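Example record for the data management plan.
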Amino acid sequence: MTINNSIDSSQSPPTSRFRWRVVDIVVAAVLGVACGLIYFGWSAVYGPLNALLKVAIPGLDGLLGGMWLLGGVLGGLIIRRPGAALFVELVAALVPALIGNQWGTTTLVSGILQGLGAEIVFAIFLYKRWKLPVAVLAGVLAAAFEWCFEIIVWYPENTLQFKGLYLLFLAISGAVLAGVLGWLLAQALARTGALDRFESGREVRKLV
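Corresponding structural encoding:
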């Protein structure tokens, strides 16, 4: 079954990578829900950690933000379809918003911006490049988009020094927790055979 699926995929016209299949939609939704549950759990420990980091260095709490950028990067790396990063990140943001968190519906705005940041990077590479550096760039741009939102909504009165440091630490967190971690998770899932219906899975397992 796996070999036949991969053969069919390899014989598809080049433009087929831009068309969503039913399996793409289903897996993207599952990924979004899974990441959303991770986000909800992360929000429970965010408060105490955030308070500690703020005391250490203003803006250092940006290091915690990368976890919420994971869905877009992971979705893009696995699904490899236009809109996948945005879709997965939005679904991931919807889960904690529905369950209930301290940020309410603004979580959805963050989800859209974070997913869009990752999506732009994958689009720049024409949805053809999926190596670690691309994943890191996706995490960084997602962080930059989220930073723009946060300094307007949450930190409008803070100093330029704080905003600069917060951007730096948030970008580092996006690169590591979303970019590197997202790429490693995609690789790990592919090795299990769970992604054999996707190019991302067949590429890692070298199926033909």
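Summary line stored alongside the record: The radius of gyration is 17 Å.
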